[in-house]
Design brief:
Blueprint (H helix, E strand, L loop, with lengths): L7 E4 L15 H14 L3 E5 L5 H13 L4 E7 L2 H11 L5 E8 L2 H8 L3 H18 L3 E6 L6 H14 L3 E6 L6 H14 L7 E6 L6 H10 L4 E4 L13 H10 L1 H4 L10 H12 L20 H9 L27 H10 L6 H17 L5 H11 L8 E8 L7 E8 L2 E8 L3 H13 L3 E10 L8 E9 L2 E9 L2 H17 L1
Parallel strand pairs: 1-2, 1-8, 2-3, 3-4, 4-5, 5-6, 6-7, 7-8
Antiparallel strand pairs: 9-10, 10-11, 12-13, 13-14
Helix pairs in contact: 1-2, 1-11, 2-3, 3-5, 5-6, 6-7, 7-8, 8-9, 14-15, 16-17
The chain binds zinc ion.
Length: 502
């Protein structure tokens, strides 16, 4: 590392982020996120924990094969079989790192590992040395570092650096630290570990007390030069420190931090939306940096100030994090060319036949809705142009419901050149519709979660329905959009059937 003031961004959305209950993603989705992270400019992508499962192993392998700019990292306990698995999974990576960890706090030593301090040091050193023989770039993490006795922490850091660790990561595994104290811990490491200049100090903060980002930033001010974080702050329990907040704090307050990152901040919103889509975790409207309201001004006095001079109430510009044009973009008289150009400016590059399909859908939406915003376009494209082969397609849907009549839905689907029609009752129009789809597709889905959200503005906004459906032992998360929420519900469910079948 030549530049002393560069903060390395280590993204662990695909590993620690994915550990959030209900966030699991498949191999294809993880790869798409990895590409997006690479465009974002993250330095290191922690792609998984290869020894844990076949799925994790394969995901790390596919990320390793395709990502060329960023370093791809695999996690391993201080065990030979873990390190071997990480090495195997990372083989194809252009730049690779193995991240070895071992718990060091008293409670973890006594209760979990049942080993004394000397044994812990010996195990860690042995693991780092073993990994170092396979890969040059080794990171070591003393798990639960923030609750480890300081002297012991200094000792194990010194020994693992001697053994070859190039990065030493200080995790606040349980989100226990308070910012001042955590900053001092990093300062203490700098002052008390004799060979610390041979490694980069990294931090990995959890958000149990809502301090993940604050603690990471306190560490940076005290000399940490790698931050481990996740997109949208997803992760176990209350989550990890959020990438976008750390990056924008360092950038916006460079007067305080005197540091920089390699992040292309204009890509932030895109990657945030992608992670939200694949995990099914909606981003709260008031979420810093990426929430839909993060740059919206409602109060009259603020609006007035903004019109006169933006910086009166705005410390960052929405376009700096990738929020695109807020004005009217297209209407029903817009042509195919304008449509394609607009998609391009949103970073969506489609093949001609895909443009045709999406354009047709756009015309339908534009007919119903006078104004089509950028958010509408993104929703249309995501809905219409998918990687998943559609076995079942919605032809028509009629529903009946009211306060005094039993709900009923009639669904017509198209598959392999034929149309199929079915009517069904249910607890409500959505339930009736899903029962009819189950009967037609002969797939018995169990609806685990259903959420509805408006993705765009105005009374004629596009509604987006997200469903989480279980088919036998397969769980899929899909979405559907329409100006009609029942149609959006049907589409989301049909997308789930298609995804389960693909
Ligand atoms: Zn963690």
């Amino acid at each position: 590392m030549k530049d002393k003031n560069r903060v390395v961004i280590f993204d662990t959305t695909l590993r620690d982020g994915e550990q959030a209950p209900g966030a699991s993603m498949n191999e294809k989705e993880k790869l798409e996120i990895a590409f997006s992270l690479e465009r974002l400019g993250v330095d290191i992508i922690e792609a998984g924990f290869p020894v844990i499962s076949k799925g994790d192993f394969n995901s790390v392998t596919s990320v390793a094969r395709h990502i060329k700019k960023a370093t791809v990292c695999g996690l391993a306990r201080s065990l030979k079989k873990d390190i071997d698995a990480a090495f195997e999974a990372l083989k194809m990576a252009k730049h690779k790192r193995i991240h070895v960890f071992l718990a060091t706090s008293k409670i973890h030593r006594d209760a979990k590992l049942k080993k004394n301090k000397d044994e812990i040091v010996a195990l860690a050193v042995q693991a780092v040395k073993y990994a170092k023989k396979k890969v040059a770039d080794i990171e070591f993490s003393p798990e639960d570092a923030s609750r480890t006795e300081k002297d012991f922490l200094y000792r194990i850091i010194e020994e693992t650096i001697k053994a070859g660790a190039k990065t030493v990561n200080i995790p606040d595994t349980v989100g226990y630290a308070i910012s001042n104290e955590f900053g001092q811990l990093i300062q203490g490491i700098k002052n008390n570990v004799p060979n610390i200049d041979k490694a980069i100090i990294s931090v990995h903060c959890h958000n149990d007390l809502g301090l993940g980002v604050a603690n990471s930033l306190a560490a940076v001010r005290n000399g940490a030069r790698q931050v481990e974080c996740t997109v949208n702050g997803i992760g176990e329990r209350a989550g990890n420190a959020s990438m976008e907040e750390i990056v924008m704090a360092i950038k916006t307050r460079s007067d305080i931090f005197n540091c920089s990152t390699n992040i292309v901040t204009q890509e932030i919103v895109k990657v945030s939306r992608l992670v939200s889509k694949f995990t099914g975790f909606a981003v709260a409207p008031n979420k810093a940096i990426v929430g839909n309201n993060a740059f919206r001004h409602e109060a009259g006095i603020h609006q007035d100030g903004i019109i006169k001079e933006r910086t009166t109430y705005e410390i960052m510009r929405p376009e700096d994090v990738g929020f695109v044009g807020t004005g009217l973009v297209l209407g029903k008289h817009s042509g195919r060319h304008a449509f394609k150009v607009r998609l391009k400016s949103l970073g969506i590059d489609l093949k001609d036949d895909q443009v045709d399909k999406a354009f047709e859908r756009f015309k339908n939406v534009a007919d119903k809705k006078k104004e089509v915003f950028d958010e509408d376009l993104v929703a249309i494209v995501e809905d219409e142009v998918k990687l998943v082969q559609n076995i079942w397609n919605l032809v028509s849907l009629t529903t009946m419901s009211g306060t005094d009549i039993p709900p009923k839905a009639t669904v017509t689907l198209y598959s392999k050149g034929k149309k199929f029609k079915k009517s069904s009752g249910g607890d409500g129009p959505v339930d009736a519709c899903y029962k009819a789809i189950d009967a037609l597709t002969k797939m018995k889905g169990e609806l685990l979660d259903y959420a509805i959200q408006s993705v765009t503005r105005g009374k004629d906004a596009l509604g987006e329905v997200t469903v989480k459906v279980k088919f036998r032992d397969k769980i899929v998360i899909t979405r559907g959009t329409s100006t009609d929420i029942l149609e959006a519900s049907a589409k989301a469910y049909i997308n789930a059937v298609n995804k389960a079948l693909s």
